[in-house]
Amino acid sequence: MAAPPMFFLLATVAVAAALGMLIARNPVSSALWLVLNLFCIAGLYLTLNASFIGVIQILVYAGAIMVLFLFVIMLLNLSALPELESLDWARIGGFAVGLVLLSQLLYVVALELDLGVEPVSGEMAAQVGSAATLGEILFTRYAVHLQVAGILLLAATVGAVLLAQRRFE
Amino acid sequence: MDVALNWYLALSAVLFTIGTLGVLFRRNAIVVLMSVELMLNAVNLTLVAFSQSMGDPSGQMLVFFSIAVAAAEAAVGLAIVIAIFRSKVTVDITEINLFKH
After folding, report:
1. Helix or strand holding residue A112 (H, E)
2. Average pLDDT by consecutive 10-residue portion of chain B (101 residues)?
């Protein structure tokens, strides 16, 4: 299904970039680490032969959403917040929650649930992930959903403008 | 279930956990929003891996709509951050306690 060396390279960089986002003090560095992580995930989509979603990922996430984040950081002129020095209980609790969550997720993956379907071949997967197949199903079976998504984006745009304009006392 | 799919699911679990830790630990509201984006991405990776492994394009349609919702969420969330910054001149989530009276 995927070329393993490429997968491991992209996966390592993706995890390293995510950790960099978590650790970086400066919000701009965090945003740039997240951009690297999003590019790696787009590459992973390409190793899965999902070319359409890979391109959309770069265009929408790395292109539009991250530019929005960087604009807001620039607009607010933020400096790095002072981090908490002491090892308080909330932080230890957070680590425990993270460990439990990770072990639970990996346990479910390790169970190897029987899905009852055979994995499809690479050519078939490339055909499923192509823009032609996805475009056809988007405008036939999911046409109503597409309209609803459009209305949602319109409402979000109007709401964002109103919220950012309003001046709370 | 082939081996490659398991690797993708494990990577997605790791990324989701890092996103959760970001939401729990970071005090900057904008970084918290970015961590939420990371969690959404981890779930999208799972959906695409399953969809490609089963040869069913519906999973990728769900990812498509999820990206649209993530864009809307980022726009509204950042607008709220700007509105809060205007009134309190901070984005530290430990100091944003409007309802705590």
Report:
1. none
2. 75 93 88 94 93 88 94 92 85 79 65
